[in-house]
Amino acid sequence: MMAFDVKVIIDHLPQILDGFVTTVWCTVWACALGMVLGLIVACGLMSKARIFRYPIRFYVEVIRSTPFLIQLFLLYYGGPSIGIYLDPIQAGIIGLAIYGSAYYAELFRAGFNAIPEGQLEVANIMGFSTTNILWRIQIPQMMVLIVPGLVNTTIILGKETAVLSIVTVPELTFVLTGIGSQTYAYAETLTVLALAYLILAESTSRLGSWAEKRLSKYMER
Amino acid sequence: MLDFSTLPAALPILWSGVKMTLFLSTMAVVLGLIVGTLMCSARLSKNYPLQLFARFYITLFRGVPLLVQLMISYYCLPLIGINIPALVAATGCIGLCAGAYMAEILRGGFQSLPPGQKESALMVGLSNSHILFFIELPQVIKLTIPGLINETILLVKASSLISVVGIAELTRTAQNLAASNFQPFQFYLTAAAIYFVLNSAISVFGFWLEKRSNNRVIV
User: Fold this and answer.
1) Is residue A153 in some structural domain?
2) A78 phi and psi, to 5 degrees?
3) CATH number of residue A47's parent domain
4) For chain B, what is the domain count?
5) Among all residues of chain A, which has the CA nearest to that of B174?
6) How far is Cα A105 from Cα A112, in angstroms, rounded to an integer?
């Protein structure tokens, strides 16, 4: 049994904070990009043209049923073979955004489907254009409806950033396991690591319930 | 153009990786179901400390990335004097993590059962364990098949992380082959295709199971 030495953590605090910032940075970018891509994919999934719908359905299935690690390896290590050169952070963010897009797309699709058909018919009769219906009627309501799912997916993506350490993105896991193997203080570093992720997940979920409460005020029907 | 000529020679090696992945995932699913059932009963029990423990367990295992959990089991268990092979540690780790997710899935199932069933079962004098194993659990499992199948697919995907602790499952094998042949794209693409086939098979099996059980259960 060994002593739990807090000094290791305090000595490396600046590095750890840098790692924390990188983790948050990657999560935020990946989620933002993932949501935008997911929205496009969701529109494709609901398209009436099979030529769009089938390939996009295949894309979603492939992304959802292959491990993120393999996708990341394919992008980062395999990318150069097909002319894609990315640095680790870029590969990490893009990879995570692509991975997230499939999950976000399914969520958006479910949200769109939950909007009563009648509203769209009425809007159509009132002379709204399809773009207007999408932007002013469907998207605002859908976004409120899916907040709980959105928060869930965002937490999952935030946890998935740990995998980025494998392609040497200097985020929390990378920094702390690095410190661990330099100082052999595995117990300390890994405990801090687990705690940091718990804090991240918990604050995302708090933020989510706050947003849910605020947004659903406008949803009284 | 991409050159796939080294692939046929590597297929037997990849197959051994596939077998390892399947073995790990199966073990993890079984362990996850056992732990999940226990945690779910603890979470739903009226015993407050037990309930608190289950909540803590579920929050902990769902809040920490699996990769970090694997590293903890790999690096920290020996520090507190537990020396088990990496294979056992890794399988146990994803099994315990799956248990937390499955507990929540099962809880959803338990809570959707009409309370009248349990009350009438108690009235006719069935014991608690009888009610759990012969009345509630069979229905809950049937109700939660979609969620459990989803979790199984997630587990197969999660098993790729075990490559980090050096166990030669599919991802690790692909990594080794990619490195020794200098063809990362080809081998990772093949690995991705294999995962896709495996998970599609699980998903089809899930649909079949769901359809079959729907014919028999009356809820």
Assistant:
1) yes
2) -85, -25
3) 1.10.3720.10
4) 1
5) A70
6) 10
Domains contained in chain A, number: 1
In a domain, A1, yes or no: no
Q: How far is CA B9 from the centre of its chain?
A: 32
Per-residue pLDDT at B215 exceeds 70: no
**Residues in A touching B176 (Cβ below 8 Å):** none
A78 in B contact zone (CB under 8 Å): yes
Distance from the first to the final alpha carbon of chain A: 61
**To the nearest whole angstrom, how far is the Cα of A129 from the nearest Cα of chain B?**
38
CATH number at residue B175: 1.10.3720.10
Residue B164 sits in which domain range?
9-216
Residue ranges of chain A whose pLDDT lies below 50: 1
Residues from chain A contacting residue B59 (CB–CB below 8 Å): 198
Asked if the structure places residue B63 within a domain, the reply is: yes
State the nearest Cα–Cα gap between B4 and chain A, in angstroms: 12
- Tens of pLDDT along B39-53? 988 888 888 899 999
Tell me the mean pLDDT in the region B6-13: 82
* Other CB atoms within 10 A of residue A125 CB: 8
Nearest to A70 among B63, B71, B171 (CB): B171
**What pLDDT, in 10s, does the model give residues A82-139?**
888 889 999 999 999 999 999 999 999 888 888 888 888 888 888 888 888 888 888 8
